[in-house]
Amino acid sequence: MAGSVGQSLRATTQRLKGKKNGGKGKNKSSKKARKEMLYGILNEKNIKQIQFGVSKRFPTWYGSAVYFDPETKRLGCSESKSQLCSNFNDQYWLETLFVCEYCFKYTDNRARFVVHAAVCPFQYRAPGKIKYKSPEYTIRRVKGSKYQLFCQCLCLFTKLFLDNKSMYFKVDHYEFYIVYENGSAKPMGFFSKDLVSYQQNNLACVLTFPPYQRRGLGLLLIEFSYKLSQLEGVISGPEVPLSPFGLIGYLKYWSQILCWHLIEGDLAHCDKVSLEDLSIVTGMRVSDIILTLKHLNCIGENNQIYLQSLSTWLKSHGTKGNWFKLQDEYLLIDD
Ligand SMILES: CC(=O)SCCNC(=O)CCNC(=O)[C@H](O)C(C)(C)COP(=O)(O)OP(=O)(O)OC[C@H]1O[C@@H](n2cnc3c(N)ncnc32)[C@H](O)[C@@H]1OP(=O)(O)O
């Protein structure tokens, strides 16, 4: 399993490079096919389900061609012939993709998966450096340049749950912030950060793995991304476009932050608050603030903010004293 993944990724990259050079002058449809191959774009799901570690199984949300050889539709350089699409079901290329829940290496072969699961070194030591450690959760920073294969496999996995992002192989200038439950080396979710983002985005892509969703981890990661950009002294926000779930999650986070600053925080006693004031205290972009205030139905002509509508939102989405997921005292940001 371990060797096959590295070879598979190299083979895919080589194949794509080769096709790119040899494809000059060919028609538009082959260009489109190459693009789809490069970004793994598929209109339908091609892997039915994921076996994530030995005990978790769940369906994929989106298709991805990047795991496969485009000609044979077989997984990377797998020697297994047991799960070809023709043997299974025309809709799917593969019924079950076995993914290591510690390092994201993958295979279509159960026996190889079981062997790997028993020896994966990441189960004893998670990669990267701890940047946040509360009594409940740890967030580790994993550099793409240092843990290339780990990050590439994580990006491939992400594509199965996020349709509009497509970065798999060039991970060198990305950092990955991965959340773990304390005492466990099993990643539960992550966000990536582009270190050469011209828009100075504080987050490229965020994912909570399906078994761990709706526990507040998405909001924790988003809050952490803002903490990092505020420490850098940058007004920032996520890379766009947001996915539908991304938008719901961000609107929740942004609504809470704006409500807190306007009702309980530094701005609560100001007579007049401008969008720029809000941007400075929250670290949010003005465009995101306007979007959120419109969502909260509390911005009028001349960008006047109606606090009454904020209070109404708060009543229906009460945070019960838990305004923030992240606690500053547990931050370990030294570089
Ligand atoms: C810039 C970008 O990367 S955009 C791409 C965003 N990522 C994706 O779309 C990948 C797939 N989706 C996911 O991984 C997750 O849904 C995330 C990351 C967006 C949210 O992760 P979670 O850990 O589930 O979020 P969390 O538990 O903090 O919930 C935050 C809020 O989002 C909303 N929300 C999250 N999931 C759902 C859902 N399935 N249905 C309705 N609302 C939801 C809720 O308001 C929720 O708060 P609540 O539970 O108190 O009601």
UniProtKB/TrEMBL annotation:
Acyltransferase recorded as keyword: yes
Gene of this entry: YMR127C
Annotated family: Belongs to the MYST (SAS/MOZ) family.
UniProt-listed GO biological process terms: regulation of DNA-templated transcription
Enzyme Commission designation: 2.3.1.48
Domain of life per record: Eukaryota
UniProt subcellular location: Nucleus
Pfam families according to UniProt: MOZ_SAS
One cellular component (GO) term of this entry: NuA4 histone acetyltransferase complex
An example Gene Ontology molecular-function term: zinc ion binding
Protein name per UniProt: histone acetyltransferase
Keyword list, A-Z: Acetylation, Acyltransferase, Metal-binding, Nucleus, Transcription, Transcription regulation, Transferase, Zinc, Zinc-finger
Main location as per UniProt: nucleus
Annotated signal peptide: none
InterPro entries named in the record: Acyl_CoA_acyltransferase (IPR016181), HAT_MYST-type (IPR002717), MYST_HAT (IPR050603), WH-like_DNA-bd_sf (IPR036388)
Keyword Acetylation: yes
